[in-house]
């Protein structure tokens, strides 16, 4: 399978990605726990069917020390006992924020209140921004049919 276009090699694509990467870097340098960031990226990527991002973020998380058990259970986080209450709140917000088109009301007050119980205002800004950024990456890669499987941790550092 080949990508539809060389988005990463395009001058305009590179310019767009620089801006998105800048936003992503601001989030990664925030006070939002790194493990939570990776779980959010993985879950949104699973929902959106983005193989490229799922490959990247599961490998990055494993490289950073995340356990195989937790990585295998991200898609079934509601039934899994291996996630903290804060992580579960972030995953719920991720699902609702990723599936806004599926729900007339968007993110529920309950999901927001649960996240707000676990994260301070700056962390919530980071969480909301991260959900938006990973959804942007997912859409670029899904539309472009970016192939998955060859990512190496740190490849884009």
Automatic annotation (TrEMBL):
Domain Carboxymuconolactone decarboxylase-like: 24-95
Any single Pfam family the record assigns to this protein: CMD
Database matches in Gene3D superfamilies: AhpD-like
InterPro entries linked: AhpD-like, AhpD_core, CMD-like
PANTHER family linked: 4-CARBOXYMUCONOLACTONE DECARBOXYLASE FAMILY PROTEIN (AFU_ORTHOLOGUE AFUA_6G11590) (PTHR34846), BLL7811 PROTEIN (PTHR34846:SF7)
Name listed for the protein in its UniProt record: Carboxymuconolactone decarboxylase family protein
Source organism per UniProt: Streptomyces prasinus
